[in-house]
Amino acid sequence: MESAPGIFAGAVFTLFGAGMLLWTGARVRHRAPVAEGVRPAVAVPLAVLAGALSLALGVWCFGRL
Question: Do the beta carbons of residue 40 and residue 33 sit within 8 Å?
């Protein structure tokens, strides 16, 4: 019962991180802007970093169970 919040947090972070990486990859592949009004040289690395950090945090949450 005490592991339920860890499972929930791990699932949320992992799904968000994976979704962010997939979305960023799809936008880059179609040469569409990743963030409106931001240069791609700035937006793509920041989006990839946010997705990777979120995915890593989700894996860390699952590892703590």
Answer: yes
- Rounded Cα distance between 62 and 6, Å, is 7
Q: What are phi and psi of 64, to 5 degrees?
A: -80, -10
Cα–Cα distance, 54 to 35 (Å, whole number): 18
pLDDT digits (tens, 9 = 90+) for 18-61: 999 999 999 999 999 999 999 999 999 999 999 999 999 999 99
Query: Which tokens go with 24?
Result: 């960023």
Cα 49 to Cα 2, 24, 62: the distances in Å are: 30, 11, 20
